[in-house]
TrEMBL record:
Native source species: Nereida ignava
Pfam families: Oxidored_nitro
Keyword Lyase among record annotations: no
Binding site for [4Fe-4S] cluster: C27, C52, C113
Coiled coil ranges: none
Record field: catalytic activity: chlorophyllide a + oxidized 2[4Fe-4S]-[ferredoxin] + 2 ADP + 2 phosphate = protochlorophyllide a + reduced 2[4Fe-4S]-[ferredoxin] + 2 ATP + 2 H2O
Cofactor annotation: [4Fe-4S] cluster
NCBIfam families: DPOR_bchN, PRK02842.1
Name of this protein: Light-independent protochlorophyllide reductase subunit N
Function in brief: Component of the dark-operative protochlorophyllide reductase (DPOR) that uses Mg-ATP and reduced ferredoxin to reduce ring D of protochlorophyllide (Pchlide) to form chlorophyllide a (Chlide). This reaction is light-independent. The NB-protein (BchN-BchB) is the catalytic component of the complex.
EC class of the enzyme, as a word: oxidoreductase
Pathway: Porphyrin-containing compound metabolism; bacteriochlorophyll biosynthesis (light-independent)
Gene: bchN
SUPFAM superfamilies to which the protein is assigned, alphabetical: Helical backbone' metal receptor (SSF53807)
Length: 422
């Protein structure tokens, strides 16, 4: 008998509730906290206020005896009023920094506000300094403004700024795009290498000397769903994206690896040999944490842009029911494969009008609500169980060995609520 029933596309074609209004977001400068640890010879000089300096210092928790790879060029009132030559002052601060720190090979000038606010064209300054300090130091710029971006877009802006200056190559290479902890990145590279995939490059690389090229024979796989600008810059250079669900959980990781394996002609027997054991470990670890999650509902406020692939993981691998999946930006070219795996039903929302979304969250009363720090405590006071979205960015959650930890981030708040209700 022939089955002519339509193939389900999940939420891929679901209507999207688009809202524009007041939003609750964390500052885009936050990305520096994980990028400066990943890029060993880079320095991030934030052109901003004392508030920006305090944010980075407190958020990063830098010990007083450490030599951090970020700092702040403080904008005083006279700078903002245009009474001082900000370019001259910035040149002096950069010269002082580079003379003291000869280990710096990449210097990022990071705007904390739009250029019309800080009265300084950092793109022009970066071009001028690149000519002055080349070839020893490469100077780039990007905006980390919380006015313009969500907090994960700081990484996107940083990586996008790096792509145009990478050399051209005709070599066929795989580029893994997105900053992950070294131990997690090593797991991904090890699995792919064991399948025979290669050569493999990463963006960002640990050091500027680990140079690689970009060209029409470059294929790239994204490790994070918030890299829309970097994706566009890579395609502009001729590189080709390998679309796939993001590597969260056993199923997501397997689908991500399989898409790359198919691109490089890896046979099914090799794929199964390499992935069988870690897949089994991941399934076992997820099952141990998912007992509290099955049948539970979840509501996502837009925050990190991880919302869609996380909803896919919690739905297909942990048995949860998403009521609303909110995300700051819905980039179908990036998260489309994940959307297609989420069963129809939840509201898909892009952007935010925080008051209206709070009303929906209160009415839904999901078993767990994922939101930013500013909303979590008030919602907890109203009896809702919450999960901080920012913790999902700072915790290693990608690939097989972290799958159980990812599920645990959601099961623990539910267990805590059950204990408090006893």
């Amino acid at each position: 008998m022939n089955d002519h029933s339509p193939i389900s596309t999940g939420c891929a074609n679901s209507p999207v509730l688009k809202q524009r209004g007041q939003r609750e977001v964390f500052c885009g400068l936050t990305g520096i906290i994980w990028l400066h640890r990943k890029m060993q010879d880079a320095f991030f000089l934030v052109v901003g206020s004392r508030t920006c300096a305090h944010l980075l210092q407190s958020a990063a928790g830098v010990m007083i005896f450490a030599e951090p790879r970020f700092g702040t060029a403080i904008l005083e009132e006279k700078d903002l009023a245009g009474l001082a030559d900000a370019h001259t002052e910035l040149d002096r601060e950069v010269a002082r920094l580079l003379s003291r720190r000869p280990d710096i090979k990449q210097l990022f000038l990071v705007g904390s506000c739009p250029s019309e606010v800080i009265k300084l064209d950092l793109a022009r300054a970066a071009e001028r300094m690149t000519q002055e300090y080349a070839p020893n130091v490469r100077v780039l710029n990007f905006s980390g403004s919380g006015i313009e971006t969500t907090f994960t877009q700081g990484e996107d802006a940083c990586l996008a700024s790096m792509v145009p200056v990478l050399p051209k190559t005709d070599e066929r290479e795989l580029l893994l795009v997105g900053a992950l902890p070294d131990v997690v990145e090593d797991q991904a590279v090890s699995l792919l290498t064991e399948m025979g995939v290669g050569p493999i490059r990463t963006l960002p690389a640990s050091r500027a000397a680990d140079q690689y090229g970009i060209g029409e024979n470059t294929v790239f796989a994204l490790l994070q769903p918030f890299l829309g600008d970097t994706h566009a810059e890579l395609e502009r250079r001729g590189a080709r994206h390998i679309p796939a669900p993001f590597p969260f959980g056993e199923q997501g990781t397997t689908a991500w690896l399989r898409a790359i394996a198919l691109e490089f002609g890896v046979d099914e027997e090799t794929f199964e040999r390499v992935t069988a054991a870690p897949r089994a470990r991941a399934r076992k670890a997820i099952d141990a944490q998912a007992k509290e999650l099955r049948g539970k509902s979840i509501f996502f406020f837009p925050d990190s842009q991880l919302e869609v692939p996380l909803a896919r993981f919690l739905t297909t691998e942990c048995g949860m029911t998403p009521l609303e999946i909110g995300t700051p930006y819905l980039h179908a070219g990036l998260v489309g494969p994940d959307l297609a795996l989420i069963p129809e039903g939840p509201t898909i929302s892009e952007g935010q009008d925080v008051d209206l979304q709070l009303d929906r969250a209160r009415e839904a009363r999901a078993d767990i609500t994922v939101c930013g720090l500013g909303l979590a405590n008030p919602l907890e006071a109203e009896g809702l169980t919450t999960k901080w979205a920012i913790e999902l960015v700072f915790t290693p959650v990608h690939f097989y060995e972290q799958a159980g930890d990812l599920a645990g981030l959601f099961s623990r708040p539910i267990r805590r609520r059950e204990v408090l209700d006893l």
